[in-house]
Design a protein that fits this description.
The complex is a heterohexamer, with two copies of chain A (130 residues), two copies of chain B (99 residues) and two copies of chain C (127 residues). Chain A has 130 residues and is of the alpha/beta class. Chain A is 37% helix and 20% strand. Chain C has one domain: DsrEFH-like (Hypothetical Protein Ychn, Chain: A, 3-Layer(aba) Sandwich), CATH 3.40.1260. The chains are: A alpha/beta (130), B alpha/beta (99), C alpha/beta (127). The B-D interface holds B 10-14 and D 10-14.
């Protein structure tokens, strides 16, 4: 079965990103497909490569990136939500005249249409948030 | 239909609202702080027991264990792991997350 | 049929709004999804439960907060062919409101009816 | 002592908890989504009216107006602007934010 | 007095904990403030109200979540001279808990007594 | 009177940062002093210079920076909370081997002791959060 996943909260503050990650991993382990993981609201903050969590803690961003690499996951950060919250890739930084960018490997920035499309194409859409 | 509830029933009305809209035969999965609703002998236990007459109630085991509740889960609430969560989503036509 | 001309079978999308406006951004960002989603020609409904009904109240004046008042945007939904707005009757009553207090025409429904509407959906987006 | 409440009383128990701990003579300032508690004729209005017998209750006017409640504030709840919020903090020895 | 040796008059600091652990990080990050704050030799108290009491429950096993179990850290508070831990009686009862279910010795107090404790503070940090 | 301010939520998602800003502005207008504004939990996200809010919306980060410049405010971002969430200045980026940094003008990164100190030194500490 094909799943679409919506993550509405950032890393660490709420459990949503953890639960979504464990759900995705379990779904993959059972042979299901993940059509797309869409990060909205504060969820966009899962896509920053500038986190430095404590040594004895999980690295939430890194494990999303690694899972994406391993399973060719499509991790999409909503552009409108990202702009409000300070997430950008190199292209966005250039377009907006910013001197830095912070998107992590395995994530891409795109529009809300990608969320709707996930709802249409996936057999189930599951929402994680606060 | 599968409903998920991730809020503590002692501080938020999410569970109460969920149970109002969950129809006969629906499944409710308690996750994150929502698992506190699965404990015996609390101020909300009766409400949950009442709901068990018409809906199936599950609680996410890793969340139950993290909160030290493994020995306090009431009869009738079934524990599932993340794989069981996935199975519940597969078995139901749609998921409503009561955030 | 419109849906098939768009190259696929339309799915039933329900947007569930349960948060008051301004205290958090969920209401506004949910509406942004609805507007973008309208272009996909799916079968769209909006449900306002609990505090979500506050998003629709008349008389919002956000000058003092220096934020944008997004309630007028609900009036534009009709132009996007989004016309199925369901509001929980009990939520309105508990908050001392009636349909006359809302910025757009809505269908006020019982919890029972709302539950049936939810059951009929393919995709539920909750914020 | 000044208490602030920023949550809707219809979805969270923050106001209820605040009123449990607010002592005679304390001040309660409703801000953000907390201002919904100031409305007349709601399911929580009676609870707020009861509280008015022992504590002073204020609501932040810009938040009231943003939510279109300017004509629905119950008698006895006083509106203050941000400057009034500052004054309330000055007048009380400490502030407890019921988040 | 210790407080004066630190070069000032001690203030009464109260940390108010009202959130369950793991669903959000507030409990853990609040505890981090308490640990750092201990070095400042102020008069420190911790209050656990509502869901905050869940932070202290025995038997927490976070392996399945892959997060750190921070409840043992409460046992270390004594080494930092943080010994005034107040727990709301009604909160425990509503949650089917008693003092015996908690990882550290605490003083279980009535709402009335807790309100008095709060009134006596100079600084209240709520998370 | 001297105020200490604690902001526990990031920009846009919750109203906390707006309320704190308006409170600080009102306090300054009344002739009070702001000893320090401390950003903790997701509040650290108020300190990123990479936000690009919509044209018709307020720029929350920029107005904090401007208010700081105008009134010499001490805006402190908690280092531990910032590391978890991906906020860093040039020095932190260098120390952690990161190729970018995102702290906005007028903010500085420091430890939790700065929050306790604000509690001690200020006449009142006011907490804004969710």
């Amino acid at each position: 079965m094909k799943f679409g996943i919506l993550v509405n909260e950032g890393p660490y503050t709420h459990e949503a990103s953890d639960t979504a990650y464990q759900f995705v991993r379990a779904a993959l382990a059972k042979g299901h497909q993940i059509y797309r993981v869409f990060f909205y609201h504060d969820g966009v903050n899962n896509g920053t490569r500038l986190t430095v969590p404590p040594q004895d803690d999980r690295n939430i961003v890194k494990r999303w990136s690694e899972l994406a690499a391993e399973h060719k996951l499509d991790l999409v950060v909503c552009i409108a939500a990202a702009q409000r919250r300070g997430l950008m890739d190199a292209a966005e930084a250039k377009r907006n005249g910013k001197d830095a960018h912070n998107l992590a490997p395995g994530f891409r920035i795109s529009g809300l249409g990608q969320l709707i499309e996930a709802g249409i194409q996936a057999d189930r859409l599951v929402v994680f948030g606060d | 239909m599968l409903h998920t509830v991730n809020k503590s029933p002692f501080e938020h009305r999410a569970l109460e609202t969920c149970l109002k809209f969950a129809r006969q035969g629906a499944a409710v999965l308690l996750i994150e702080d929502g698992v506190y609703a699965a404990a015996r002998d609390t101020a909300v236990a009766e409400q949950v027991q009442e709901a068990l007459k018409t809906v199936s109630i599950y609680a996410l085991k890793p969340d139950v264990e993290a909160r030290g509740m493994q020995n306090r889960v009431m009869d009738g609430v079934r524990l599932v792991d993340y794989g069981g969560f996935v199975d519940l989503v597969v078995e139901h036509n749609a998921v409503q997350s009561w955030l | 049929m419109t849906e098939e001309s768009a190259g696929g079978i339309a799915k039933k999308f329900l947007y569930v709004n349960r948060r008051a406006p301004y205290g958090s951004i969920y209401g506004l960002e949910s509406l942004e999804v609805v507007l973008i989603g309208a272009a996909f020609e799916q079968d769209v409904s909006l449900a306002f439960l609990g505090d979500g009904v506050f998003q629709l109240t008349k008389g919002q004046d956000t000058k003092g907060l220096e934020v944008k008042n997004f309630s007028p945007t609900f009036r534009a939904l009709e132009d996007y062919d989004v016309t199925k707005l369901y509001v929980e009757k009990e939520a309105l009553e508990a908050r001392g409101l009636s349909a006359a207090d809302l910025v757009v025409p809505v269908e006020v429904v019982s919890a029972q009816r709302m539950a049936e509407i939810m059951e009929a959906q393919d995709v539920i987006l909750s914020f």
